[in-house]
Records
---
Amino acid sequence: YRGQCAEFCGASHAMMAFETVILEPAAFDDWLAAEAVPARAPATPEETRGAELFRDEGCGACHAIRGTDHVATIGPDLTHLGSRNSLGAGILEVTRADLAQWLTHTGEIKPEVAMPAYDWLGPEDLTALAAYLESLK
Ligand code: HEC
Ligand SMILES: [Cu+2]
């Protein structure tokens, strides 16, 4: 079921969708157990580079990835970002292309968002960062 934020909360209020997924009890228990597990470690050189960029670009000032040193709570917890059904509250898909789009055009996609746009990242760094984020299943 699609849900929508019900109280006017700022310029991007109309872009605050969420999805409720109804599961049988056993499937819900499986989902909950998977969510409780810390993040996967990077498995390829590209993902490792992405994790380094995450640290060096200061993403951890606002985000948590459980199982790493990043524990901030200003932005969403990204521990299992790759298993989400959408990005930015229903706006984009969790693909490398959309992740790169989000990282470089954050405020254009979502006005008044409390995350800076990382428009200085070159194509290779962007791909590595997106690959790492997508791997966080
Ligand atoms: C100043 C705080 C801040 C910094 C620094 C920051 N973010 Fe964010 N980020 C946020 C906030 C707040 C949101 C939630 C945006 C929304 O949907 O309203 C967000 C959302 C995201 C999302 C979408 C998450 C979701 O639940 O859909 C991703 C992916 C993301 N950030 C990655 C990054 C990466 C990678 C970096 C570093 C290059 C970074 N962020 C740096 C605050 C920050
Ligand atoms: Cu709202």
---
Amino acid sequence: MIRAQLRLSDHWEVVSKEVETYLPEHDDDHPDAPDRASDDPESWKTEILGKVMINIRMKRGRFYRCPHCGCWCRAHEYVDREYDHIPDMGYDVKLFVNLPKLHCTNCGRYPQVRFPLARPKVSYTKEFEKSVLRLLCKNTVSATAEMMHTGPWIVSDILDYRIRHAIPEQDLSHVTVLFVDETQRRKGHEYMTVFSDNNHEVIFIAEGKGVGAMERFCDYLRIQGGDPDNIWVVSADMSSTYESGVERYFRNATLVWDRFHLVQAINNTLNDIRKRCLKRRKGERLRNVKYTVLKRPENMSEYDNEKLSNIRLNNPELALAYDMKEEFCEVLECADMYEAQEAFEEWYAWVRIQGCQEMRERADRFKLKIDRILAWFDHRVNNGVAEGINSKIQKTKDAAYGYPNLDHFASMCMFRFGNLVIAF
Ligand SMILES: [Zn+2]
């Protein structure tokens, strides 16, 4: 029965099954017992009620095939191995397996019979691995580890192993459009650059940023069957390092400043203006408006609208900057390049005459590289989705709590948003 559940062939037999129930950790009737009602309702998930131990062995008295020369040979000795299996109803399940070690008289070697339910050299079964991967789709490493009653290092080992083994199968021959985005793993930590393809799936994560990261991607692309010369659009942020990177590594590509980054840049400018106003006016009626001014009108709540009217009354300078940001966002929503160019020139003239210094500087920088902005209308690179990836990665980063090693963060991004084929 258990053998069938585990899907073991009839070479194997289940010798015994023992269940050990742990004594409850808290005695609820004890006067000092903690108030269980106020406990986290999810806590039952992680509570370990006991363990189930299943002893398995290979049927005795058999001849086995030597994996090296194919001759029939006998068991020389037996070794015990212990494997973690999927926890069942709060019980840890452990498989104790007695494995024969053979002695082949033909080739003189001592091969060990493999346990078919687990990969060699690990202490958990393949089903256990699959459960871990299923849980990782929605949970952090530490939460997954807790649910599986195991250590976070085991979870991240499984993740890394699967990623490492999926990479040789990754085919990048289809890549013609490239989205490049850099992100910091955590505040103060070094940068990593995320590369996504035409389908907005993450295809590579490079350490560092700028030209170096592009070079690493270029090498990787060639290994995975892609060709840097096939890439005709690279969408990236406004840092000047990408310009030389694209020129050097993607000779046939046009660099496009994507909408997401343009909006981010002008929002940063607006935020600088807000901070300056806040300082000067000692904060009266300007506190807590940061997220209000950064919002688009369609995303504003009634409360935000009220705040905005307040800003208009009390701080015309910030209100004007807000209007200029909105007008710029509308330039990006034009139907075609000509319309956009006209709208941009109008916006630029307005900012030059009435804008404050920060806004004028931002506009000058845009004006200098207007081709990169207008190129978007030519190539119609859909940034809505790229933005989606960026915010998803941001969320993965927020959930990074519990990653035993920050390097696993890259594995996690590849696992969740990458185009690797990982079956589980
Ligand atoms: Zn042999």
